[in-house]
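Students often ask why we bother encoding 3D structure as a string. The short answer is that it lets us treat folding as translation between two languages. Here is a chain of 304 residues written in the first language.
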Amino acid sequence: MGHDHSHGTENVSDGVLLWTVIVNLGLSVFEFVAGAISGSVALMADALHNTNDAAALLIAYIARRISRKGADEHYTFGYRRAELIGAMIQLTALILVGLYLVYEAVRRIFEPEPLLGGWIMAAAGVALIVDVITAWLLWSMSKGSLNVKAAFLHNLTDAGASVAVLLGGAAIYWLDWTWVDPVLTLVIAGYILFMSFGLLRKTSRILMEGTPPGLSLDAVKETIENLDGVDNVHHLHVWELDEHHKALEAHVRIVENRQSHSILRKQIKDLLENKFSISHSTLELEDSSDAHRCGDEGMIRPED
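And here it is in the second language, the structure alphabet:
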């Protein structure tokens, strides 16, 4: 029963992603046209951001579908990291968009152009409504997925950008403050870059098989070595298969004639899962006679 319910929810989520792609593409076309008519670089920036979001959502949709494939002889860990690759692609594209917006805003500061505040307000108002609806649809899906979370954060930034453009359009319409448009563009671009680099670091760490955040290798080593029958732990590696699954491999030197390998191995595996949420562990148990073949010099420390 529970399995069927989960599967149904995933199918609904895929449908939501697909619809948000279509809606955001439509919004982008509308904003591009409105930006061209009004001469607003901030509105064009919002349109460019929305276009990237539509692409990001499409990548998220495709990546989610791929990531559900089971393990096979070519990818023995399965396709879990497809979503991480999707997040990496969309974040890289978003950083390029942010850098372009900085260039365009600076150019407009030195080469101002006439603007139509009424068009800017109308287009930004429509964009704000679409951004809020899209973010609301993605909110429940963003928990537990960097890929969808990246898309969700994109839409939150879009909503904030639309509010800023709406206020900027009002300032241009009633106060003729044309300088507001490139300044707003710089703010939007700065926020895009700040959010993107943060998520990019997190995604890169997983793809580079870095130690999970908040996990101390020294603590893991000490915990295992405190078990009765364990003499030493070395060649210790801990990484993330994806956002939800940690993996560990280690060499464990045991005290001879204390207990069977199978019992001790099960104790260590249970301890790792219960205390550190490490569900996949590969342990090589060694007797003291194996010391000359292995040795503590191979032990990985956190700073390595």
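Translate back mentally: The radius of gyration is 26 Å. Keep this in mind for the problem set.
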